[in-house]
Predict the structure.
Amino acid sequence: MQASALSVSDLNEYVRRSLAGDPMLQGIAVRGEVSNFRPYASGHWYFSLKDEHSRIACVMFRQHNMGLRFKPQDGMKVVLVGSAGLYTVSGSYQFYAEAMLQDGVGELFERYNALKDKLLKEGLFDASRKRPLPLLPRAVGVITSASGAVLHDIKTVTRRRFPNMPLILRSAQVQGDGAAADLVKALQELAQSGYVDVIIIGRGGGSMEDLWAFNEEELVRAIAACPIPVISAVGHETDTTLADFAADMRAPTPSAAAELAVPDKKELAQRILTLRNVLNRQAMNHLLTLSARAQQAAGRLERFSPAMRLQGYAHRLAVANQALLGAYGAGLRERKQRVDALLGKLQALGPGETLRRGYALAMHEGQLLTGVGELPEQFSLVFHDGRAEVQVLSTKLEEFL
Amino acid sequence: MTQKKQDIGFEAKLEALEALANTMEEGGLSLEALMQAYEKGIRISQELTKELETAQGKLMSLKDGALKPVEDHDGL
């Protein structure tokens, strides 16, 4: 009997091996609540994981916990990944954690849905609240982390669509504690600066926790209240945050946000040019029609006043013609010739044409004589081909024909 | 640097130009009205073209309410 007695060490070692050899106990995930959390100076963490009925001692060594972005606290619900085994020195059974996840994701979803319902009922996401984006902003505000790929993508698209469009970056913390508050401040600062006409707010993809700042009530409200239109570009296309609902426009990616914010310069220039072509064509057509009518009318008139008015128009036509040529140039040579021809016709409507048809002007000392009562003893008669000095023999007033 | 607020926005001007073009296309304008519409339209189109070039595309950063140029590694 005595010979077969095991040492404590042998027993513990046997149990340790048994547990270590059981695949059911390796690489498993276990859910529970952290209690009695004790971080040691060595960097190792010791704590218990418990549920309503049981508890298990846990250790998480320094090399496994140093990459963790949160520090566990008593009461925190977590999922541990690792293996169960025996610590032979004390004969205690414990869990060796290699990874720890906050088991709050389900809770986050609940908070997300509750806040979404609340803000939806308030009308914060109503389509009627959405403002149109400006066609040509003076500058585009960008709120994101200074180092991320978001800024790079926005710059690339902007350079392609409108190379001289200014971008104004307000770099901000986009995840972790204080991120929402910093993003709110960034929105306010950009809006108050008066430099930008549209704002892109965004960050790259990540877990729901990473993107959480964009679901915080203060940021969602600040986006809705921002006096400048806001485009959101948060995470990947499949991630939808409450910030996206509140924004005036939601872009699936930062590049798409830049496409929305920054107009295509070539397209705008073409639109302006097309309109200018319409103006030129219409002006020319109208002028040709009107000048034909004016010529007909002028032919029936014997006095000079219409010619004077037409000369006024001819002058303005010449000025407009200058502007038109300044506006473009080469394509309008032919039209300019038509305008020149038109000007020639307008000038032909002066007195010369009338004189040629058999009328003469009675002139004295450079003044036009318009009645028998004004005639001096001698005056000139001006014909289209010369003048004659004449002497008055007698005058008699009478109704003309 | 970026401009301060424009008197009338680019978009409003572009719409005004479109309206002038439409009016001229509809016809029936007196010579006087035609010339006015034409001169105004040419002036607006010149302003619009100019506005496309006004901005100087720089990346600036807003820090404590002040604009600072950003060191740019990709040359924008």
About this structure: Chain A has twelve helices and 14 strands. The longest helix of chain A spans residues 265-299.
